[in-house]
Amino acid sequence: MRQLVLLGLVGLGAQLVDGSLGMAYGVTSTTLLLAIGTNPAAASATVHLAEIGTTLASGASHWRFGNVDWQVVTRIGIPGAVGAFAGATFLSSLDTAVAAPVMSLVLLALGVYVLARFTVRGLRRDRLGQPLRRRFLAPLGLVAGFVDATGGGGWGPVGTPAILASGRLEPRRVIGSIDTSEFLVSVAASVGFLLALGTAGLDVAWVLALLAGGLVAAPIAAWLVRHLPPRVLGSAVGGVIVLTNSRTLLRSDWVDAPDATRHVVYAVLAIVWVAAVAWSVRAHRGELALERELAVIEAEQGAARRAEHGAEPRAAQPVDDARTGAAEPA
């Protein structure tokens, strides 16, 4: 019973992070299962079976809060399902020891880019609203789905930074769309694992414990991402990507850094990450203050123009801050 409670808490925490940042459920849950001696394929199968329920709940919650772009969901989710099925089917015969560091290096570069861009420049708006092309989303989904199934997690870490880096979709919509499309990936991976492994090594109680924790956290995370400013959210996501993939690289056969070196690197990266998020929060508050001042000036100018033409001045309307989802008084 104690183990099941622990798994439930892990599922809750993992889904809270995943639903807020678009990644980490599979990585967190799979890591715990491997730590207690679970077969890698069985661990990934257990997590993906639980994710069928958690991703469905998370997708519904994100849709309720307006965080989903359905065109992105279909364009990346269907290829992702194909990749996940292939990865699950061949996991037992695949060696990802070489592929993992290569992927982590690519993701680390993307993470540094996302962290720096959102911290220094904020959300790029000259591309917002431009469609994400199928020729970009389809290969991305195929690779992300394959990595997710073979590594027990990876859909978010691969898909989220790549779409964020395009600058064509708000962070909250990136996260909502990635979380929603992951339902298709989880179903396909689970089918692949069941066909390849049967029920060997699977513990239904573990699946239900992870699922229960994730179901509790899903609506909370969807609400949270709806109200976080894009600039702050982008810095937070970038930091998670950098820390996660730095850890993978430092522990890989390529580097094999000693424990002391790894701990120093983690500490430095954590300090940089916290400073970046703090800077983004401060910059966001400055942007809001400027927008309020401009709204007041615009309202006063409008009232003056109406008065000149003999029109009765009207009360200023609230200004909708699309980045926070909240209405700020004019």
UniProtKB/TrEMBL annotation:
A Pfam family this chain is assigned to: TauE
UniProt keyword Cell membrane present: yes
Protein name from the UniProt record: Probable membrane transporter protein
Keyword Nucleotide-binding: no
Main localization category: membrane
Organism of provenance: Fodinibacter luteus
Transmembrane segments: 98-116, 136-155, 204-225, 263-281
Recorded family membership: Belongs to the 4-toluene sulfonate uptake permease (TSUP) (TC 2.A.102) family.
Localization: Cell membrane; Membrane
Stretches the record annotates as Disordered: 305-330
Membrane topology, record value: Multi-pass membrane protein
Keywords for the protein's UniProt record, in alphabetical order: Cell membrane, Membrane, Transmembrane, Transmembrane helix
